[in-house]
Design brief:
globular, 14% helix, 1 helix
């Protein structure tokens, strides 16, 4: 009985450590917040593949839009379901930031140069900035627990 209890405690400790470790990284699931309306739009999962960072839409907040496709996309992504779509591509770690890749807005059909970084005071907030030349927009995404 003591061995079973020790195994359960070890598993719980691993889950705790993993959750705590993710608090200081951009990896995991984030609720996207529209910077114009302040409303939650979707959930994006940010993950690492090789040396690059990607992010894909894993949920859409509005239940009436669950089957939405990317009608404004071009190329192979045109009319692909938004859920599962990689909207963040090819970012690389640069100090405390991730940059050098792109972020795509499926509603507008526009691609931007991207930069992501955690809020220094609250690591449950991810700053997501998209650039076109010298113009940019920044959204603050909230970590999904």
């Amino acid at each position: 009985m003591n061995r079973k209890k020790a195994i359960i405690q070890a598993v719980l400790l691993l889950f705790f450590i993993q959750g705590f470790a993710q608090q200081g990284t951009i990896f995991g699931k984030w609720k996207t917040i529209d910077d114009e309306t302040g409303e939650a739009k979707s959930t994006v999962e940010i993950y690492k593949k090789g040396d690059k960072v990607f992010g894909k839409v894993v949920a859409i907040t509005d239940e009436t839009r669950q089957d939405e496709v990317c009608s404004k996309c071009k190329g192979a992504e045109k009319n692909v379901p938004v859920i599962g779509l990689n909207i963040i591509k090819d970012l690389e770690k640069d100090g405390d930031e991730y940059s050098g890749g792109t972020i795509f807005d499926p509603e507008k059909g526009k691609k931007y140069t991207a930069k992501l970084w955690l809020d220094k005071e609250d690591p449950s907030i991810l700053h997501v900035r998209g650039y076109i030349a010298v113009f940019y927009r920044t959204q603050n995404w909230i970590r999904v627990e």
